[in-house]
Every structure is written in C-alpha cells, then in structure tokens.
Design a protein that fits this description.
Belongs to the class-III pyridoxal-phosphate-dependent aminotransferase family. This is Aminotransferase class III-fold pyridoxal phosphate-dependent enzyme. It comes from Ancylobacter moscoviensis. InterPro entries: Aminotrans_3 (IPR005814), Aminotrans_3_PPA_site (IPR049704), PyrdxlP-dep_Trfase (IPR015424), PyrdxlP-dep_Trfase_major (IPR015421), PyrdxlP-dep_Trfase_small (IPR015422). GO terms for molecular function: transaminase activity. By secondary structure, the chain is α/β, with parallel strands linked by helices. It folds into two domains: 154 residues, Aspartate Aminotransferase, domain 1 (Alpha-Beta Complex); 236 residues, 3-Layer(aba) Sandwich (Aspartate Aminotransferase, domain 2). The chain is 38% helix and 14% strand. It has eleven helices and 13 strands. The strands form three sheets. A seven-stranded mixed beta sheet has the order 4-10-9-8-7-5-6, with helices on both faces. The chain has a four-stranded mixed beta sheet with strand order 1-2-3-13. The chain has a two-stranded antiparallel sheet with strand order 11-12. Helix 2 packs antiparallel against helix 8 and helix 3 runs parallel beside helix 8. The longest helix is centred in the C-terminal third of the chain and has 23 residues. The protein is globular and about 60 Å long. The model has no long low-confidence stretch (mean pLDDT 97). Bound molecules: 4'-deoxy-4'-aminopyridoxal-5'-phosphate. 4'-deoxy-4'-aminopyridoxal-5'-phosphate (PMP) binds next to helix 4.
C-alpha cells in the first residue's frame, strides 16, 4: 500500500492549515495505516489519493445512506443545479421537502432548513427558549450536539457564561433527569436528548421506554420543549424520527447528516406549539437556501421510503454483527457490540487504551476495509451480503492481529 501522495499532502497542509486538519477527522487520531485524503467514492467504495481502495463502513460519518453517488439522488441534485442552486431565495424544492418531512415525521407540523447538524441543534435550543421565555437547556453528560460554545466537547476557547444555562443529566437515568429539572428551578426551556446514547468510545445504549416516557413527561410538566437530536441517527432507524421506536414524540427535532445522501443540509422540525416561536427568532445562513441539496433530500427521503432501505440496512447490519460475534468466539477474544445494527460499534473487553481496537482496525484497513475503533460506524442501503462477507474476511485478520499482541501490550 503506497501512501506517498497522502504524506505529501499532509506535509503541505501542515504549513497552511493549523495542525494540518481540524476536528475528529484528523488522521493522527486514527489507527496506523489510515489515509487522510481521498480521491473519489462510489457505492460502498472509497479510494484514497494514492489509489488504494476501501470498503466503506463510515459513510462519510453518516451522510451517505444510499451509497456514494446514488444515481437518482445525483440526477435530482444536478438537474436542480442546472436550473439554479444559490439564488436570491429558495426554489420550489424547499416547499416539496418541507411537505415530505411533515408527511413522514409524526411530530412535524413544519420544517425549516440549514446546513450543519450544529445549526439545527442550536436553532432548536433557541426556539425552545423563545417559545417558553425560559433559559435552561438540559443536556446528557457526554452527549455530542455540535461544535459551538454551548455544546462543544472541548472547553478551550469557551467561557463559563457560554454554558451558564446548560444543566446536565445522565442518559437513560430518570432520577438524574428529574434532579436536573429540579435544578432548573422553574427556568426550564428544553431537554435535548440524543436519538440513542452514542457517546464516543462508550458502549451504545438505546433509550429505554421508561426514560423516553419520563423525558416527555418532565418536559410536559415544566411546559418545556423535548428536543430529539436526530442528526446522527435520523432516517437510519425510522423515517418518522428515532424516538418513534420508543413511542415518544418530541416537540422539536434536529436533522442533518443522511438527509440528502451527502449533499449539505440540515433541518429542524417541530410541532405547532413552537411554530410562532420559530417564526419569531432570527436564523439564516449564506447557503441555507441552496436548492441542489434540497432536491437531493427530496430524492433521498423518497428512495429510502420506496426501497424500504432501513429494513435492508438492518439485514446487512445483522449479518455483520453475527459474523463479528462468531469471529470473537472462534478467536476467544471477547467483544461488545452495542446499539442499532445499522450503526454498529464494536469494542473489545479490557481495552481501556483502545490498543486492541486500533490493532484490529489497522489490520482491516490494510486489507481494504474502513472500520472505526471508537466511533459508531454506519451502514448504507448500498451494502450487499458480498460486502459484509468481505468485511468479515478483513475482520478475521483484525482478530488475528489482536491475538498477536503480546500479553504485556494486549
Ligand atoms: N448532533 C449529533 C448527534 C451529531 O452526531 C453531530 C455530528 N457528528 C452533530 C450534532 C453536529 O453536526 P455537524 O457536525 O453537522 O454540525
């Protein structure tokens, strides 16, 4: 595997981009052998700048839900692009998309559009405050809702004042949620919950029905907003919103990632209770009316529904999960697989420093399969049983390389 072009780009970037790369996609945080730069992508495959091919299990960290370059999504997007993308206001596609989301998502009486997941979670919090006239937002410890001061996982460059009205609770812990509500002391604007607990490097947890019901009741008792952050999981678990599975409807939800199969778009949906508040706040962005992404989203959501894509992703995810479990048993290397099968996370037992996870992933990437050791992965509707079989062959090399770690380092 050559990586000379990747290395050369990293060196050039070090001079003109602080640190060479920002955020969680920095290859320095990934196991040995991972490329930083990619040249192209198609279906379930990715090619790095040196021409190495990978079977993709990160799907651009979520956005690619139908496979890279889905022909129907691309056709809809490029047809819109030919007509116009960045204009002086939205195209018809915005209304079509809002209508489609209102049709698909039970709590949604309206939708509005933005660009990034952080835009959507931040706007949802602002709407909750505007609609209630109160200030406190409850956030689960360790949950990720974006990269701006009110919610960034890093406190560098963040002031205490930025967090003055954020209170925390533990996901799936009703008592801690109630304690946080009590702490809000009559000033509660909203409770934000992730679709499920998908904190980096931790076992995933689906919400319990009891917790989801208690969160709904706590918001209702305080006349506050229940906000589901569906940025990461949205449209992979249910087209109507991830908390449909636990029978709870939020007041507001934040969406992004897979909504347009990789074209940049985010959305906030909400019920009529928050319509006037949404109309009253000021939000906008230079690219928020981009028509190409909205046309891509109409196509993406329509195809997901037409093809029953979630059921397909669940079947492929189950094959992967069963295959990994069987390899773990064969090699007698205990692992934990948690969360929904179409958003898999595999962690090794006794692996606090992630050395096993990194050894596993390094072996897999050398065999041309792109896994992640600590972040949940993503399946797409393009994955086939053949892809899963190939992934399991690479996983077998991964288990062998974990077995080969010396006991002192294992
Ligand atoms: N919420 C969740 C649950 C996310 O996973 C992410 C992105 N990983 C965000 C919000 C922020 O989205 P973005 O990076 O598009 O701003």
């Amino acid at each position: 595997m050559s990586n000379s072009l990747d290395r050369a780009l990293r060196e050039r970037a070090m001079k003109v981009v602080p640190g060479g790369m920002w955020g969680h996609m920095h290859a320095k945080d990934l196991p040995e052998g991972y490329p930083q730069y990619f040249a192209r992508a198609e279906g379930t495959k990715l090619w790095d700048v040196d021409g190495n091919e990978y079977l993709d299990f990160m799907c651009s960290w979520g956005p690619i839900i139908l496979g890279h370059h889905h022909p129907e999504v691309d056709a809809a997007a490029f047809a819109q692009y030919q007509r116009g993308d960045a204009m002086n206001g939205p195209a018809e596609a915005m209304v079509e998309l809002a209508e489609l989301m209102v049709e698909l998502i039970p709590h949604a009486d309206w939708a509005q559009f933005e660009k990034n997941g952080t835009d959507a979670t931040t706007t949802a919090a602002t709407i909750a405050r505007a609609g209630t006239g109160r200030r406190k937002i409850l956030v689960a410890n360790g949950a990720y809702h974006g990269a701006v001061p009110w919610c960034s996982p890093s406190l560098i460059g963040v002031t205490a004042e930025d967090r003055a009205h954020i209170l925390t609770y533990d996901y799936n812990d009703i008592e801690s949620l109630r304690a946080a509500v009590a702490k809000a002391d009559g000033d509660l604007a909203g409770i934000i919950v992730s679709a499920f607990k998908h904190d980096y490097g931790k076992d995933q947890q689906l919400p319990t029905v009891e917790f989801a019901t208690a969160a709904r009741a706590a918001a209702d008792d305080a006349d506050a907003a229940l906000i589901v952050d569906d940025v990461r999981a949205g449209f992979r678990l249910s087209l109507g919103g991830s908390w449909e599975r636990v029978g709870v409807q939020p007041d507001l939800a934040a969406w992004s990632k897979s909504i347009a199969n990789g074209f940049p778009l985010a959305a906030v949906t909400g019920n009529d209770r928050f319509r006037a508040a949404t109309q009253s706040i000021f939000t906008t962005g230079s690219f928020w009316c981009g028509a190409m992404s909205m046309a891509a989203a109409v196509a993406t959501l329509s195809i997901l529904r037409r093809d029953d894509a979630i059921a397909h992703m669940e079947r492929m995810g189950t094959l992967l999960r069963e295959g990994l479990a069987s390899l773990s048993a064969t090699y007698d290397i205990p692992i934990r697989q948690t969360g929904p099968v179409q958003m898999p996370l595999m962690l090794f037992d006794d692996d606090a420093d992630a050395r096993k996870g990194f050894a596993f992933c390094s072996a897999a990437i050398k065999a041309g399969v792109y896994f992640h050791p600590l972040h949940n992965m993503f399946l797409s509707a393009a994955h086939t049983p053949g892809d899963i079989a190939r992934a399991l062959e690479a996983a077998e090399l991964g288990f062998r390389s974990v077995r080969a770690l010396t006991p002192a380092t294992a």
